[in-house]
Amino acid sequence: MINQSIFFAIHPDAPKDMRVFGDKIKSSGTRGSTKAVGFESKDFQPTPGLQIPELISSFRGGIDTILFSFPSVPLYGNTERTDAYKSLIQALRIGTNFIIVHYESDRETIGNWFTAAGHSLSAISWVPIPSYVDFTDWAEDAYVALRDAHDNTFYLMEPWEFPRSGDQLLADSIEEYTHLNSIQAPLIFQGGNCLIADDFWILGKDYYQDTIDYIQDHTLPLRVNPGQKVEDLVRQSFSDYVDKNRPMFVAGTKKKIPLAAYVGSKENDEFILDIVGAGTGPYQPIFHIDMFMSLIGKNEEGKFEMMVGSPKLGNELLGLSDRAHNLQAAYDEIARSFEKEGIIVHRNPLVHYPEFTGRKIPIKYLQNLAIQNPDDKDVNSALKDLYSLGARENDFALVRNWHHITSNNCLVENSEKFGKHVYLPTFGHGEYTQLSALDDHMKDLWESFGFTVHQLGDFNSFAKRQGVVHCISKFIKRSD
Questions:
Q1: Which domain of life does the protein's organism represent (predicted)?
Q2: pLDDT over 80 (residue 51)
Q3: 223-257: b or e for each residue (b if 16 or more CB lie within 10 Å)?
Q4: Which strands, in side-by-side order, build the sheet including 452-458?
Q5: For the chain, which residues make up each domain, given as ranges?
């Protein structure tokens, strides 16, 4: 992963709550409502402990209960983020139940967002967090949601560690204020790197490999027995803790992706330092699979269908140039791996989008960073690029950051009761009107699969932080 301190040294104005940071493992407010909206009361005692874990689907069934985390209303104010959230709240079906993680002082403002959209406050379970605890709005990642098929109890399953802000504290608070249970697994995963289909579920390879590595270096408390392969232990452990009945499909490239985080280039006599690796994983073209994959469901022939993003299609749609750091080959390899499993894979445009930060960085400054971080191959590689193009220590380089514009990161419900709906972010707003071609294309594509498309507001500010709609929400319960 990209070195966080070097990234902010080069791009100090970048959002501090980017989804990709805090992604690697490292060796009292007033009580609110305690009702659990959307969950039936039980007339029997559930069996203690998790017996048959079953992940909540990423696409199948209506959205019965969904979770959001709002770290601070002043953070949003009247900004683009507020409007994006309001567009999603407005689009979700009346009767949907919500769990809202928030600061107590923001409850009235947040409640007004929901009532203005026609939702009842009785549909909300409030989970207040002490004002001195930092957390993010990336509600998808700190756990996976599952139910115990043995007694129909619901759980938030946490990974062994989750080092992003205070998000690792949220599951315990949610357990306190709802009927959800909090539990932990000795495994490495994040919700955004998992997608759950009917007959299988998908884990991004980065965390699969991390789990193997941390077992081998004894970071995780799992023991490989004599004659046992570590890979078999990992799969068995994910079955025991995460999903008992669905087989796990690992999505990623066979070999590590050879990408430097920074690339030096020259355009129109200007030296440029491109930040190209902030959203890339070791075996994944984007660090979470929910950023470049979407599940559709089974067709009339019973074949499962899905989408996998393609930067090449995105560049063709927008008239942009293909670049090596778009990593087209990695997306193609992953798409082929699913096709070999008998899954129908549709390709959709996805854009690795460049944006100048307004910052000019002295080559001398980069030299000093390289001296201070001699083991960091990325910044040294970029310096070599710039030197080869004629840059010298008294020259400057424009800093250009690349982020992913992806409609794959959406909310999908394929329901017998409610029909087929998809909630899509849009990007073709203001100075980004060029991206409206992507919005239109994705609307047409989902409609061709029989979905009603709900186009949401402007999600550019989220995409710049390497996350979109699926990242800021968590499916807790699905209806038929």
A1: Bacteria
A2: yes
A3: eeeeeeeeeebbbebbeebbbbebebebbbbeeeb
A4: 411-415, 419-426, 452-458
A5: 4-17+256-470, 53-251
Alpha carbons 419 and 413: distance in angstroms, whole number: 8
The model's pLDDT over 57-89, given as tens digits with 9 standing for 90+, comes to 999 999 999 999 999 877 666 688 999 999 999
Distance CA 197, CA 57 (A): 6
CA distance 116 to 439: 26
The confidence score (pLDDT) of residue 22 equals 65
